[in-house]
Amino acid sequence: MDSQEVTGIYRTSSRKVESTRLDFKRFLYSTINWSNRLIGIKGPKGVGKTTLILQHMKEAFAGSTNALYVSMDNLWLATHPIQELVEYHYTHGGTHIFLDEIHRYGQWQTLLKNLYDDYPDLYIVYTGSSMLQLSRAGGDLSRRLREYTLPGLSFREYLAFEGLVSIDAIPLESLLHDHTSLATDFVALVKILPAFEQYQKYGYFPFYKEDPEGFDQRLQEVVNQIIYRDLPAIEDMEYNTLQKAERLLMILSAQVPYTPKMTQLYSELQTNREQGLKILSALERAGLLRLMHRPLRSLKQLASPDKIFLDNPNLMNVLAPHTEIGNIRETFFLNQVASGGHRVELPHSGDFLVDGQWIFEVGGARKSFEQIKDLPDSYLAVDDTEIGVHGRIPLWMFGLLY
After folding, report:
1. Three-state secondary structure string covering the chain
2. How far apart, in whole angstroms, are the C-alpha atoms of residue 174 and residue 162?
3. Which of 259, 295, 329, 355 is the most buried (most CB within 10 A)?
4. Rg of the Cα trace of the chain?
5. Which range has the worst mean pLDDT, 191-195, 299-303, 354-358, 382-386?
6. Which domains does the chain have, with CATH numbers?
7. Residue 199's closest CA among 79, 306, 328?
């Protein structure tokens, strides 16, 4: 391979790095240990994984050809093996390679293992779908890999992205104890409720800024790409199964939060229990659904969800625009608390059990403690409220956790 063959790859890499802005970085950026030799960054489509690695390249390798960005769906790779490009990069002084959307490569685990073993001083960073899972069949990467997961924008990040206010993330326990004083300081800086309303419509996916008016269509395209490009790249699914996955998502979108009658659901899809659960699991790992369970009592509960949600309010706004406000509130709470690293389950009383300790009921400003009044460590997450008191916490504040 001569230099003329790869000039376009290097030119594209340089152009993308140079055009990347550094004025806003996702929360994950500062937590990544970039000195690891093999780094994986997973996450749903559209949440900013590509921008994150390009920002690091711009800061760490400005004006250098030592680092190369490669999108794994680049047409050049349709006729050239990626190994040839890596060999050229390495033998011409390359020290770092960034492989974007690694799941586009069929044997991605074997590829990473071979690159790691064959180039002992090459640093490899890849991004991929949140569905990616390591398995021993493709080469054991677990001892080599440092893996990170990037969710969509938190409400806190959205406020910074919009230039409204910038604050550090607030730990959940601090929020529970000090929410009144924290909210008092916060609302003095920004009109919080209008911003919160806009966030729920389009603020979870950073690409909304590129074309606000076309956001709904863009998000629909993202959903279609996940189902018809990402799923078959990772899961062993035939086309008619992908169609069932799309139909299942549409059925659930009209009813979420959905307490499933699983037999009826499988019947509507004209599928069996095994395939139905496989589709549900894939849609959850793709960042389209959240499957909720009560604290486990039996092995059966490991398979069948007790309640199904869409992943985030933006998806609800696009796929289920006529949903009730109460459902949007619950979806926001679940998404932000779970994305903040907390375990969320369904309690016997109340809406959500967090980390096996705290019980939350989610509702509007007039929501009462009636359903959870006798439960210890119980709180209300209430909408349409700027500042709460005692156990009544403004719902928007649960978007400050990451």
Report:
1. CCHHHHHHHHHHHHHHHHCCCCCCCCHHHHHCCCCCCEEEEEECCCCCHHHHHHHHHHHHCCCCCCEEEEECCCHHHHCCCHHHHHHHHHHCCCCEEEEECHHHCCCHHHHHHHHHHHCCCCEEEEEEECCCCCCHHHCCCCCCCEEEECCCCCHHHHHHHCCCCCCCCCCHHHHHHHHHHHHHHHHCCCCHHHHHHHHHHHCCCHHHHCCHHHHHHHHHHHHHHHHHHHHHHHCCCCHHHHHHHHHHHHHHHCCCCECCCHHHHHHHHCCCHHHHHHHHHHHHHCCCEEEECCCCCCHHHHCCCCEEEECCHHHHHHHCCCCCHHHHHHHHHHHHHHHCCCCEECCCCCCEEECCCEEEEEECCCCCCHHHCCCCCEEEEECCCCCCCCCEEEHHHHHCCC
2. 25
3. 329
4. 22
5. 299-303
6. 3-149 (3.40.50.300), 156-399 (no CATH)
7. 328
pLDDT band at 32 (very low <50, low <70, confident <90, very high): very high
Residue 315 near residue 263 (C-beta atoms within 8 A): no
Tokens 């086309």 belong to residue: 239
pLDDT number for residue 135: 56
Residue 296 scores a pLDDT above 70? no
The pLDDT assigned to 294 comes to 84
Q: What are the pLDDT digits (tens) for 191-211?
A: 999 999 999 999 999 999 999
